[in-house]
Write a structure and sequence with these properties.
The structure holds 2 protein chains of 2 kinds. By secondary structure, chain A is an alpha/beta fold. Among the domains of chain A are: 67 residues; 83 residues, no CATH class; 235 residues, P-loop containing nucleotide triphosphate hydrolases (Rossmann fold, 3-Layer(aba) Sandwich); 96 residues, no CATH class. Helices cover 30% and strands 22% of the residues of chain A. The chains are: A alpha/beta, B mainly alpha. The interface between A and B is large, with 44 and 27 residues.
């Protein structure tokens, strides 16, 4: 926790009223304006905000990586008392990597793919310190051990592609720590990682912070992550710092409407659609050229905006000694907000639990990909054929009008499962029944009436729409193809659909490049709705969107489900979102479902050990919530050669203590399904009574 | 909620569909953004205009012979001089441009619009794009067969290939088109295939597949329009190569048969008189070929640079 009584001489970095401009063809554009903060030793400052808010620009500004067209036009950046603005490139080069180091988002791009890891690590030392190669090598090994890297000697002589993403990020962190820097800049260091890996990396960062006494700047868009690591928060919006303060104050007593909006628009772990709606922030972050210089930058999106907000850019209002907010109503905004509580959703007929008939059922579904071998034997078709078992023996049901959420880390087979269902990948074995019709054939051999009942919403808003056609014609295409409306009424139908996804009819003639990410995703949803399908498959529909937009899209999907009565399969890696959205949840690990059942049952004990580990890894945007710390060891095994017996036994944290004989049985025998009283099923050798004794993962800390 | 506001807002009059003029203007503005492209465009435009309006730019026909004035230098009567039969070089030059860029002789009296070089590239584009789309989209053994066959064609030196084809088919404009097509197809197919390999992984292709669309629809309506930028630029360069090839073939006597004014055969004929003191008959058509090819290259390069910058 931030210690305000600490003496001022341990301030490592002081950023004071910095403004950064980019030169463009249309003149200078203000990228960053009025940013001030301090970072002290052994303290982490979190920079939070949506994409395009200028978080990374600040980090680049500190080390002057702004590129040829960016420059700091105002303010000062003092590092250990020395001014950095205006320093020559040569001087900065000595600082970078030595006193100031950086950790970037994608470790694969931070590491040189053609140089052995050991050499890359040692180079950091030999470049800045006058030490021998051997000594540097020895120090690198120690540092890798320090970041909990297994099998260190071996890792040193490997190339980056030979270790997993989480391990790569550990190497990058080790590299950043090698010279014992005074300041570490971390730009979304865990965004590219899976939740369980992310949790382990965050633990590591926390540990290192205390040991190395370095000052950290942590840039992220994820409030949950920042709640876990940082002591002090700066909330960025459209290039301005709108609020800054100690962690607890920002989370419990936010005073800027943008901060309040950010906190209200993400579902907390355990929230469900039955209890509350998400509150999106309207509009989107304005691009730098469109930011007004004469009014509050947030005014166009603010719920509390008044005429006074449009008169001038507001300055900071002091809330407490460390807490600043850039809003003219900062002192009274909490009272105004109290009148606008989270809306409750009324229980509708559609949500009342009742036995329903199955719309879709998988039985022992298998999707295997043949693995091509390069050996001479296989060239003649004689070698043993190998398969990547992407989906192996999965059975699950989707009831009419309900939502099945599928969660799991990357590579667990959730995408292959739906590809098999929709017919884009051939089904190797098993039975899929959709409304009583066999759906194991590839899509090209299916009947049009079957195809139109299953449509998909995709992940990436930038590639979900064909850039060559207008929005209208892309929505019209499935209507024409499936003849859901007579020819002369196609356009009316398209406009109806545009309205259903809350887009104005003027979008009919727009091209995808004129749309924002959230709008593109809405069009993608409208296109999927065009054939009036019974089942909509959403493959990570919100994971590429900013949080404020994400909330709006989730609300839209919920609404559409109520209006159109469609069933959904919702794939995501974000457990809070899945919990919020789904009625039933299936947890997948390495091609198998390990736990399946009603959403609320999954999030309470008894847990499958894997579910338990997943839940304990989810970053929760609330510093008062305590989570159990269960960290999985090792990597996800290869699907080419999955472990025998229980697939999870190589990483299971529970079998050692909860089973007799240290869980030998897990290594050899396939576990049985247990069904709990709440109606959910767990695939595990550990008896249900034992699993039920486990404490819940998440509980609110006593304040 | 903003979304709710949008939905309840009164329905506005629909936006005007961007007209054909606006789209042409948008294309031209990209050209004008690059100096290189403007220079190239000016050169190409010059040749296209003189070719289209050739009869307005000269009082002579290209076949009109003046026995009294063979092998003349530039003069008032003949701006660029005359050839060994006293034909006006300027009119032969611009009527030659016609054959290349504007009109193609099928028979002596039957001409179709679109120059010989243009037709050669268009046919090569159609065949090459189809093969490239098939190879890239289907993959597997279809791809393997198509690409290996095209590789085999690319292994033969281009000049040799032209000469073999023309020697086998005989000299005529249609056969020149066939030769340009055969030589140009492998390159275009390779380009389109590589673009297809990238585009087919996009999610809108998956969306089309989940709609159960016909593979041909996906190839020609979903993939091809998104590959058009690089294809257009490549086609411009190929028109340049085709003009070059026509010149070469004409020079070797395998091009469009006389008396049709062909730049290549003009150079071949004029060559004999360079040392006798009248280089003009060979000079002007060489300059014409060079300027047109350079112009197209500049235009293509400028466009490529400019479109890269917009990405």
């Amino acid at each position: 926790m931030h210690n305000s009584s600490a003496s001022t001489n341990n301030i490592v970095l002081e950023v004071d009223n910095v403004q950064i401009n980019y030169e463009t063809r249309k003149g200078d554009v203000e990228a960053i304006q009025g940013v001030s903060f301090k970072v002290r030793q052994a303290e982490t400052v979190g920079l939070v905000g949506e994409s395009g808010c200028g978080k990374s620009t600040i980090a680049f500004g500190i080390v002057n990586f702004l590129g040829p067209n960016g420059k700091i036009v105002e303010g000062s950046i003092r590092f250990q008392g020395d001014e950095l603005v205006g320093r020559s490139e040569e001087e900065l080069k000595k600082l970078r990597g030595d006193r100031i180091s950086m950790v970037f988002q994608d470790p694969m791009q931070a590491l040189n793919p053609s140089v052995r890891l050991g050499e890359q690590l040692a180079e950091v030392l030999t470049c800045h310190r006058n030490i021998s190669q051997e000594e540097a090598w020895e120090k690198s090994i120690q540092m890798l051990k320090r970041v909990n890297m297994p099998d260190v000697e071996n890792v040193m002589v490997r190339y980056p592609h030979q270790i997993s993403g989480g391990q790569q990020q550990r190497v990058v962190i080790a590299m950043a720590m090698l010279n014992n820097p005074a300041l570490i800049l971390m730009d979304e260091p865990t965004t590219a990682l899976d939740v369980t890996v992310e949790a382990a990396v965050l633990d590591l960062l926390e540990e290192l912070k205390n040991d190395f006494n370095a000052a950290n700047i942590f840039i992220t868009h994820n409030l949950g992550v920042v709640a876990r690591v940082s002591d002090y928060h700066c909330v960025m919006y459209a290039g301005q710092m709108v609020e800054s303060g100690p962690l607890a104050e920002i989370f419990h007593d936010p005073r800027h409407p943008y901060t309040m909006g950010l906190l209200a628009c993400v579902p907390r772990l355990g929230d469900s659609k039955l209890e509350s709606l998400l509150q999106p922030i309207r509009g989107r972050v304005p691009p730098p050229a469109e930011r007004s210089k004469t009014e509050c930058i947030f005014a166009p999106r603010c719920e509390y905006v008044t005429e006074d907000c449009r008169k001038a850019r507001p300055g900071f209002t002091q809330i407490s000694s460390e807490h600043l907010a850039r809003c003219i109503y900062a002192t009274e905004i909490q009272d105004r907000a109290r009148t606008r509580k989270r809306k409750k959703v009324e229980e509708t007929q559609a949500q009342v639990d009742a036995p329903r008939e199955d719309l879709l059922s998988f039985d022992h579904l298998k999707v295997y990909y043949p693995q091509e071998s390069n050996s001479v034997v296989s060239l003649f078709g004689m070698g043993e054929k190998k398969f990547v078992k992407a989906v192996d023996d999965v059975s699950v049901r989707v009831a009419k009008g309900r939502t099945l959420g599928i969660v799991g880390e990357s590579g667990c087979g959730k995408s292959s499962l739906v590809k098999g269902l929709i017919g884009l990948e051939p089904v190797t074995d098993g039975d899929v029944q959709f409304m009583g019709i066999d759906t194991t054939k590839p899509v090209t051999e299916r009947d049009t009436n079957l195809i139109k009942e299953m449509q998909m919403v995709f992940q990436n808003p930038d590639s979900t729409l064909n850039p060559s056609y207008t929005v209208g014609s892309q929505i019209a295409r499935p209507i024409r193809r499936f003849k859901t409306a007579p020819r002369n009424q196609v356009k009316d139908e398209v406009i109806k659909l545009l309205k259903a996804v809350r887009l104005p009819p003027t979008f009919y003639e727009r091209l995808p490049r004129q749309l924002s990410g959230g709008e593109k995703q809405r069009v993608g949803i409208a296109r999927a709705l065009a054939s009036r399908p019974d089942l909509i498959i959403c493959d990570e529909p919100v994971s590429a969107l900013d949080v404020s937009v994400q909330a709006a899209v989730i609300n839209l999907l919920l609404e559409i489900q109520q209006v159109f009565g469609s069933s959904m399969i919702f794939i995501a890696h974000d457990l809070s979102v899945v919990r919020f959205f789904s009625d039933d949840i299936a947890v997948m690990y390495l091609g198998q479902i390990v736990e399946v059942g009603p959403a609320d049952a999954i999030y309470d004990p008894p847990y499958h050990p894997y579910t338990e580990a997943l839940l304990s890894a989810v970053p929760i945007p609330d510093p008062d919530v305590a989570q159990k710390e269960i960290r999985l060891s090792g990597n996800v095994p290869s699907a080419l050669d999955p472990p025998s017996g229980c697939r999870f036994h190589t990483r299971c944290p529970r079998r050692q203590d909860m089973l007799p004989d240290k869980g030998k049985i897990c290594e050899t025998e396939t576990p049985p399904w247990h069904t709990s009283e709440k109606g959910h099923r767990i695939l595990c050798h550990i008896p249900l009574e034992e699993l039920a004794k486990v404490e819940p993962v998440v509980h609110a800390r006593e304040v | 909620m903003a979304t709710a506001d949008q939905a309840t807002a009164p329905i506005k009059v629909e936006e005007v569909k961007p007209g054909i003029f606006r789209r042409i203007w948008a294309g031209l503005s990209i050209i004008f953004a690059s100096k290189i492209a403007v220079v190239g465009f000016a050169i190409v435009l010059f040749w296209v205009i003189v070719a289209i309006f050739a009869p307005l730019f000269t009082p002579y026909t290209p076949l009109e012979q003046d026995w009294k004035a063979p092998n003349q230098g530039p003069s008032k009567a003949h701006i660029l001089g005359t050839d060994e039969l006293g034909r006006d070089l300027w009119s032969r030059l611009i009527y030659g441009a016609r054959v290349v860029l504007v009109l193609m002789p099928i028979t002596e009296n039957f001409w179709i619009p679109g120059g010989t070089a243009i037709w050669g590239v268009i046919v090569a584009l159609i065949i090459g794009a189809t093969l490239g789309l098939m190879g890239g989209y289907y993959g597997g053994w279809i791809d393997e067969i198509i690409m290996r066959l095209l590789d085999a064609m690319m292994a033969v030196p281009i000049i040799l290939l032209y000469m073999i084809i023309m020697a086998a088919l005989g000299a005529s404009a249609v056969n020149v088109v066939i030769a340009i097509t055969i030589v140009g197809t492998p390159g275009i197919a390779r380009l389109v295939r590589s673009l297809t390999l990238d585009i087919r992984t996009r999610e809108y292709i998956r969306a089309a597949e989940t709609r159960g669309e016909n593979p041909w629809h996906i190839m020609f309506f979903e993939i091809l329009p998104n590959a058009r930028g690089p294809i257009i630029i490549d086609a411009m360069l190929r028109v340049g190569y085709a003009i070059f090839a026509m010149g070469t073939l004409g020079f070797l006597g395998l091009g469009i048969p006389p008396p049709s004014p062909d730049w290549g055969s003009m150079v071949a004929k004029g060559r004999e008189f360079i040392l006798t003191g009248s280089p003009y008959a060979a000079l002007w058509p060489s300059v014409a070929i060079a300027s047109l090819v350079v112009g197209l290259n500049l235009l293509a390069d400028g466009l490529r640079e400019e479109s890269m910058r917009y990405q």
